[in-house]
UniProtKB/TrEMBL annotation:
<keyword id="KW-0698">rRNA processing</keyword>
<dbReference type="GO" id="GO:0000177">
    <property type="term" value="C:cytoplasmic exosome (RNase complex)"/>
</dbReference>
<keyword id="KW-0540">Nuclease</keyword>
<dbReference type="InterPro" id="IPR033770">
    <property type="entry name" value="RRP44_S1"/>
</dbReference>
<keyword id="KW-0271">Exosome</keyword>
<dbReference type="Pfam" id="PF13638">
    <property type="entry name" value="PIN_4"/>
</dbReference>
<dbReference type="GO" id="GO:0000176">
    <property type="term" value="C:nuclear exosome (RNase complex)"/>
</dbReference>
<dbReference type="GO" id="GO:0006364">
    <property type="term" value="P:rRNA processing"/>
</dbReference>
<dbReference type="GO" id="GO:0003723">
    <property type="term" value="F:RNA binding"/>
</dbReference>
<dbReference type="Pfam" id="PF17215">
    <property type="entry name" value="Rrp44_S1"/>
</dbReference>
<dbReference type="Pfam" id="PF17849">
    <property type="entry name" value="OB_Dis3"/>
</dbReference>
<comment type="similarity">
    <text>Belongs to the RNR ribonuclease family.</text>
</comment>
<feature type="domain" description="PIN">
    <location>
        <begin position="83"/>
        <end position="198"/>
    </location>
</feature>
<keyword id="KW-0269">Exonuclease</keyword>
<dbReference type="InterPro" id="IPR050180">
    <property type="entry name" value="RNR_Ribonuclease"/>
</dbReference>
<dbReference type="InterPro" id="IPR041505">
    <property type="entry name" value="Dis3_CSD2"/>
</dbReference>
<dbReference type="InterPro" id="IPR002716">
    <property type="entry name" value="PIN_dom"/>
</dbReference>
Length: 951
């Protein structure tokens, strides 16, 4: 039996122990079934008397295994006597920023009850707590109160789980008071639970809430902590006014309503064009009242309004930065009137009646200058209430109290939402930290990472300890070593890689050769990452948490440590590497005769860029490597043609290349669209084929738990607006009855005078699609496996395990499917796979958004020196302007007009006597201006043709 005295401490080993030696504790649990029946469960656990207390001067624990004197001198920089803090669960759940900012010499005792309850309530906070505990610079001791005989507890008669947990934490305080020698530092329970404090005081314990504790610290310590206290905005300020929003319904009522179909549950998506609108599962929420304190990404419950109250989405651009006084109630009434006047077909409209799960986190913001008090009033105040405006236009302003307001005006800051009362127009939050000067590259880059929740911290010691001990000098061992077990020696194959310029994390390599029987052998060789990343070790857990490598313009945030990602796993040329190979035998028509999967050792003969591979294919050389590339290209052309015949879609999204002055300065000097070559398609086709082949194999072997990727068929209603625009503006028809019909009708959307028209239609069609997602094969019916865009009945991701965690899981499943290794138990659990893939899907989505935001930031920097004049295409019309897309820069922007005529039915506006509609080409000047309120650079577009916007 193994246990530990804390994650940062050595394990305690108990060899032969009897039931009587360990003691036995019982906990009784009641569980309500779906049918309403209450079942009683009795859980037994062993308790011990040899877990050390962690106190430096404890004679009773000195000789116990795992003894480590973390608790030494009590903390003295406070009005309270020298003390240790015992941390209640609500402190971790609501004051984590403060806990992380506490001085390193402040000793914390964290009961195991607190840890278990945190893990149950919030996995992200649990992970942050683990990092806090494992920090060697801090004095943190985990007290295993549930395992120690004196503090083990069980639920008493009529005692709920929360009351039982509170009592268990108080019992920890009693234990230390009785266990430690006379004259020990004071034991202080830190809790924001009023009832728990009252009971603690009645039992003779010393306790206080967070605000009181921080206020009692010496000034030089308090000044760095006071802004981090959650609940800094006085409740009286919130409740003095009238009720602004409806109260949420009880959870029981919400659950019953969802079950009967009266309510709809879904994620809240705020409109990018109108901060007073949002949607949930296709239901329109019009106005702040209807959104009822929802924040982007919240899981909410919506009640559908009567059909007579359904409305059309707004036809105005309503910018929170420009609109008068943001979220004022006065403007709320005006906004509702605007919505009622809108023309267009009404859509289902509803209101939020409850929140299932909040998506609150730390947001990048700036202080609203208008909310600051005059300097003369600041002298008598330690803190003032101000408003922070989030970087994202989809979020409301956040009210907070801070003493640093004057110094934060020109800074980007991190703010966390804590609560949102129905009596307040704004959510309340607290200041976390300053990120740096607005518009400074460092602050902007860190803001981007934080805004999209990219884990960019360095890899910790525990993770790096999982790497091969040989480090850079690791090599594939000679034959006969265990590494070679069941591996094929493919080092003599003419294998090469084809990647973008500067690629260091080379996942894949390819080969092709003619066989004696006249068929062709083609192979895809993928880095064998799963050989180095073992299940459930710290490196694997970190990779699962990160989910994916994030590619920004000037840097890469790796999923795996660089030793693996850019060295030992990277299929570099001229060195031997471990691989997982998919090898097909094909006929001349690129039809698969057979396929096999094998662990292998390869030695790549060359690392090409797309351009170099294209030149090699088109050049005069006839060596085996060149012939291999030509053979691969011939097969790829036939594979793509077969996919297109099956109904695969060719959609568009512009890819930009940012030219930087140098790797040191990373200053952008130019922007251009990436050029796609035949060799891009070559690699794509074989990666798709490998993913399809592997998907079929793992699903056949593990029908309930295979890690797959699907792309659902979009609802036909998603295309209605685009179909109507094409018909009215171009007389064209878009057939969405199937992916094949859609592909064929997209091919027919051609304007001979404007070749770029077809690309624009494909970009707009892409926005009508659903997002692809990872899933476990047992979680949906087999019919739902289909990948709509690729027109294939099954698909997965196998080809990029260096940069995608889903691929690592697929490698493990494929290895088990070919009997190379047994399948790890975690990959046999449907619930574990679903939970893991939910994280991976989220990380994948955020990484894409971060990458696009990085490109947009650098495009803005490139434009800062001089505005550019570019062709743009109208993609949407509003009653007060146009949305245009500048393909050369990959930017979408708004052009606003004061006096225009708006024809919503025909998607046109008339301004200055000129009619402009969707799909029209206009000339714009794209530059960057400094927003007076936000103090940040903002891309601004001005039309110069056919109408000069200044007219």
């Amino acid at each position: 039996m193994m246990t530990t005295a804390g994650p940062s401490h050595p394990p305690i080993t108990i060899l032969k122990r009897t039931r009587a030696d360990l003691g036995l504790a019982q906990n009784k649990f009641l569980k309500k079934t779906a049918k309403g029946k209450v079942l009683s469960f009795l859980r037994e656990r062993y308790v011990r008397d040899d877990i050390p207390c962690g106190f430096e001067g404890c004679d009773q624990c000195r000789d116990l295994p795992g003894y480590k004197p973390v608790l030494q001198k009590g903390y003295r920089h406070t009005k309270i006597d020298p003390h240790y803090l015992v941390i209640d669960t609500n402190i971790v759940l609501h004051q984590m920023d403060l806990l992380e900012a506490f001085p390193p010499d402040l000793a914390l005792i964290i009961p195991s009850t607190t840890i278990r309850e945190t893990r149950h309530r919030s996995l992200p906070l649990y992970n942050r707590l683990q990092q806090l505990v494992q920090d060697d610079e801090r004095k943190v001791w985990i007290w295993w109160n549930e395992e120690r005989r004196e503090t083990a507890t069980h639920a008493e008669e009529n005692e709920g789980p929360n009351d039982r947990n509170d009592r268990a934490i108080r019992l920890t305080c009693h234990f230390y008071n009785q266990h430690l020698p006379i004259g020990h530092p004071l034991i202080v329970l830190l809790t924001d639970d009023r009832r728990n404090r009252e009971l603690a005081e009645a039992e003779g314990l010393v306790c206080c809430n967070t605000k009181t504790y921080v206020d009692g610290l010496v000034p030089e310590v308090r000044q760095d902590l006071v802004d981090l206290v959650v609940g800094g905005v006085d409740a009286e300020v919130v409740t003095r006014g009238r009720r602004v929003y409806e109260e949420y319904l009880s959870q029981d009522v919400l659950n019953a309503g969802i079950k009967t179909g009266r309510f709809v549950q879904g994620y809240f998506n705020a409109s990018q064009y109108n901060y007073l609108e949002g949607t949930v599962s296709g239901i329109l929420l019009a106005g702040r009242q209807a959104m009822n304190r929802s924040v982007q990404g919240d899981l909410v419950v919506v009640e559908l309004l009567p059909k007579a109250e359904w409305r059309a989405p707004g036809q105005d651009v309503v910018d929170a930065d420009v609109d008068q006084r943001n979220d004022d109630v006065e403007n709320e009434v005006e906004a509702k009137e605007k919505i009622q006047e809108n023309v267009g077909r009404p859509v289902p409209t509803g209101k939020v009646v409850g929140v299932v799960k909040r998506n609150w986190r730390a947001y990048v913001c700036h202080l609203d200058r208008s909310s600051l008090l005059p300097e003369a009033q600041l002298a008598s105040l330690s803190q003032q209430t101000v408003f922070a405006t989030p970087l994202s236009v989809t979020l409301p302003r956040i009210r907070l109290r801070t003493r640093q307001a004057p110094t934060l005006v020109d800074q980007k800051i991190l703010v966390t939402i804590d609560s949102w009362s129905p009596f307040s127009r704004y959510p309340d939050g607290h200041f976390v930290r300053a990120l740096g000067k607005v518009e400074s590259k460092e602050a902007e880059q860190e803001s981007l990472l934080l805004e999209y929740e990219v884990p960019y911290r360095p890899f910790g010691k525990a993770i790096l300890n999982c790497l091969p001990v040989e480090g850079d000098s690791w090599k594939v061992p000679p034959k006969g070593d265990l590494v070679w077990r069941d591996r094929e020696d493919l080092r003599d194959l003419i294998v090469c890689s084809i990647d973008p310029p500067g690629c260091q994390d080379i996942d894949d390599a390819l080969h092709a050769r003619e066989l004696p029987n006249g068929n062709i052998e083609a192979g895809v060789h993928i880095a064998d990452v799963s050989h180095f990343v073992l299940p459930n070790n710290p490196m694997d857990s970190e990779a699962a948490s990160r989910g994916t490598t994030v590619y920004l313009v000037d840097k890469r945030i790796d999923m795996l440590p660089a030793l693996l990602g850019t060295n030992l796993c990277s299929l570099r040329p001229f060195v031997e590497r471990l691989a997982f190979s998919v090898i097909w035998e094909m006929n001349d028509d690129a039809e698969i005769v057979n396929v096999r999967f094998v662990k292998s050792v390869i030695a790549s003969k060359e690392a090409f860029t797309y351009e170099a591979a294209q030149n090699r294919k088109d050049g005069p050389l006839k060596d085996p490597l060149t012939q291999s590339i030509r053979l691969l290209n011939t097969l790829a052309i036939k594979l793509k043609a077969a996919r297109m015949r099956a109904g695969a879609l060719s959609l568009s999204s512009p890819e930009l290349k940012i030219h930087l002055a140098s790797s040191e300065s990373a200053e952008p000097i130019d922007v251009e669209q990436k050029q796609l070559r035949e060799t891009n398609s070559l690699v794509e086709e074989f990666m798709l084929l490998a993913n399809i082949s592997v998907a079929a194999k793992i699903q056949e072997t593990f029908p309930a738990t295979a890690v797959l990727r699907r792309h659902g068929e979009p609802p036909k209603t998603n295309f209605e607006a685009l179909q109507d625009i094409l018909h009215k503006r171009r007389g064209m028809t878009l057939d969405v009855s199937s992916s094949k019909a859609l592909a064929e009708s997209l091919d027919a959307c051609v304007d001979p005078q404007r070749p770029e028209f077809n690309t624009l239609v494909r970009i707009m069609a892409t926005r009508c699609m659903l997002a692809a997602e990872y899933f476990g094969s047992g979680s949906v019916s087999k019919e739902a496996y289909r990948h709509y865009g690729l027109a294939t009945p099954i698909y997965t991701h196998f080809t990029s395990p260096i940069r995608r965690y889903a691929d690592v899981l697929v490698h493990r499943q494929l290895a088990a499917a070919i009997n190379y290794t047994p399948l790890h138990p975690s990959l046999q659990s449907k619930s574990h796979i679903e939970k893991t893939l939910n994280v991976v899907n989220k990380r994948h989505r955020l990484a894409q958004m971060a990458g696009r935001a990085s490109v947009e930031f650098y495009v803005g920097l490139a434009l800062k020196g001089a505005a550019r004049r570019e062709d743009a295409f109208v993609i949407r019309t509003f009653r007060n302007g146009l949305a245009v897309f500048v393909s050369a820069l990959g930017l979408e922007g708004l052009i606003m007009f004061k006096d225009i005529e708006y024809d919503a039915e025909n998607y046109i506006i008339t301004v200055g006597g000129v009619t402009i509609g969707v799909f029209d080409r206009v000339r714009v000047e794209v530059g960057v201006e400094k927003d007076k309120n936000t103090q940040r650079g903002k891309v601004k577009m001005v039309m110069i043709e056919p109408v000069n916007q200044t007219l």
